[in-house]
Amino acid sequence: MILWVMTALFALLSGVLLSGRGGFLIAGYNTASKAEKEKYDEKKLCRITGGGMAVITILLFLMALFGDDMPYWLEAAVPAVILVDIAVMMILLNIKGKAKPGKDGNRTAAGEKNRNSALVKWGSAGFTVLILAITAVLLFTGEVKVAVHGEEITIQVSYWPDKEIPLEEIQSVTYEENVSFGRRTNGFGGIRLLAGHFENTEYGKYLLYAYKPCSALVVLKTTEGTIGVNARTEQETEELYQMLKNEIS
């Protein structure tokens, strides 16, 4: 769901910029004085920035489309494509977004032109990098932490509400390998983490708090339903299982 929302947002911003409008979105240019803005081709700046964002929009669309079945080649390609996209955009901003001649037809002094060109170039790149950084944080970071406090188990996961499970509500705990997490019905899905409501053929509808690369899972059967949680690796997940089993016994 989050990826689809981000795809829609990026598509909207890309469309506005590609139309030659939305100069106020370009950092550096939007704070420049009227005299400084007259030295640039605003439509070109917008379209170049919009083109760079359109590439990211396509990546987000593919990631949302594949969902939890995202191929590894796409996961590996995302950061590389983003870096190339930013580099190409900066080059085009420097070449195509050159300062325009002044109203009197005289050329702007070389030093001033270079400074202003750099301002727009780095400002536009900074705006894009900021958005991409937020996206990267959501997709590539996050932690799952499990702890026992008194008479309850607490599962803390990044970007999704924590879960507290009273020990008295746990009916069984098992360790499963090669688990197919199934499809996400309402939750968070990144390259690193999966969290929220999922559904598969083995557990039906259940809650999942997991590192996506690890296929092992500690399955808790509770009075409220099934909950799956894991650690970064299969070995750490098995250790988590032993710890929870001892606490519940």
TrEMBL record:
Superkingdom is Bacteria
- Looking at the keywords, is Transmembrane helix present? yes
Entry's transmembrane regions: 6-27, 48-66, 72-93, 122-140
Domain Bacterial Pleckstrin homology, by residue range, is 146-229
Q: Which InterPro entries match?
A: Bacterial_PH-related, UCP037672
Q: Which UniProt keywords apply?
A: Membrane, Transmembrane, Transmembrane helix
Q: What is this protein called?
A: DUF3784 domain-containing protein
In which organism is this protein found?
Candidatus Blautia faecigallinarum
